[in-house]
Structures are given as structure tokens and as C-alpha cells.
Amino acid sequence: MSHRLALAALLALALPTALAQSTAAPAPSAAAAPAAVPAAFTLAPLPYPHDALEPVIDTRTMQIHHGKHHQAYVDNLNRAVAADPSLRGLTLEALMARMSTLPAAVRNNGGGHWNHDFFWRTMTRPGQGGAPSAALAAAIDRDFGSLDKFKAAFKTAGTGRFGSGWAWLIVGADGRLQITSTPNQDNPLMDLVAERGAPLLGNDVWEHAYYLQYQNRRGDYLDAWWQLVDWSVVSQRYAAATAGKRG
Ligand SMILES: [Fe+2]
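ok -> C-alpha cells follow
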């Protein structure tokens, strides 16, 4: 299997099916409309109450981050897609795969929508996230030396991102784990990023994610955030991303 095919298969396996279903639900078609169905991206509710991540992430930050910032990405994405009939009916993942050809408004807001939905579902109540599966733990040891070394390298990626962006753990086309960082709302699914792969977890290092509570202390936020990571979800993503890599 070529690297290109391997990556395509890997990305397909890693796609968040629930997101595709919840965000790309077809809108009611106009009378006598042809087959093209307008995409109607929607903001899904948080998978937990706004105060569930206290004291690591405060309630007010969650209210603003989800209800204002994420909502704005959804609204602006819908405007951008509505302005280009060729994009109607495409899933968010399909947009990511051809992002190099699309307007900045789709890149920024499509990325913003996908990234935040992924982010909310990466977290759970403090201390409830369990531990990496045996397979993921072994991969972390193989590729980073230990879980602590992985966390330290991830923090370096997050604190090293100048301005706004994200830090990611991905499975690359070769099946190995990689830490990456993207600016703004880019993500590892986009065809325009240098380091593509299947995201396993991602942390939002925009100031809007932490400033009310942590102010300029991004490193403290990155340290505390591990209390929220839902390793069962991350491990399921790893299993999906690597399922086609053996045999
Ligand atoms: Fe954000």
C-alpha cells in the first residue's frame, strides 16, 4: 500500500462518525431541488455540563468557548459554504481533505468547527479519564520513551506555538505516533498541513481556551489539562487509526 493510500485509509478510519452525522445532516431540500443537498452544520451540545471540567477549566470559560467561539465558527462556516454551491452537501471531513483549494473562511471556520468538536469529546471530568490502553501505552513508550516524556514533549509543542493554534498527537502514515502543532484553526486532517495524520488528541492553546483562569500561564494550563483527557476515547481513536495497518 502506498503512503498516500495508507494515509487515506488511516484518515477514513479516524474520522469521527458522530461528528459527520451531527454536523453534516442534510437540511430540508427545496421543492423540486436537484440532488445537491445544502450542508447545515450545527453546534452539538457539550457532552457534559459547563461546570464539569472545574477546577481545571472554569465554567465561564466553557460557556464562552462553546457558546460564543464555537458557535461563531459554525455560523461563519455555514455562511462560507452557502456562498459556494460546489461545497454544499460536503461533510466536514471532505472539506478538510481539499482545504488547499478552498477560501480562508472555510479553512478557518471549518477547522474551528472540527477542532472544537474533537476537543470537547477528548475531555471528561477531572480524574475520570482513566489511562491509555495497553496498545496505546506501548506505542507511547515506543515512540516517546514514556508517558511522562510524551507529556513533556506535548507541552513543549503547546507552549512553543507562537500566537494561536493547537498541539496534537497523531498517528502518521507510517503508523507511528507524532506530536505536531498547527497555527490558527488548521488541523492534521487538512491537505495543506505539513504533518498529516489521524488525530488522537488535541489541545486548544488559543488564549480564549484558558485566559480567564490562567492568564499568560499557558504552561500551567497545559500541565493541568492532562487531568481532563479521556484516555478511553483517545485509545479508541488509536485502535481505529491502526486497525488497517497490520496484516
Ligand atoms: Fe478554542
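DSSP finds ten helices and three strands in the chain.
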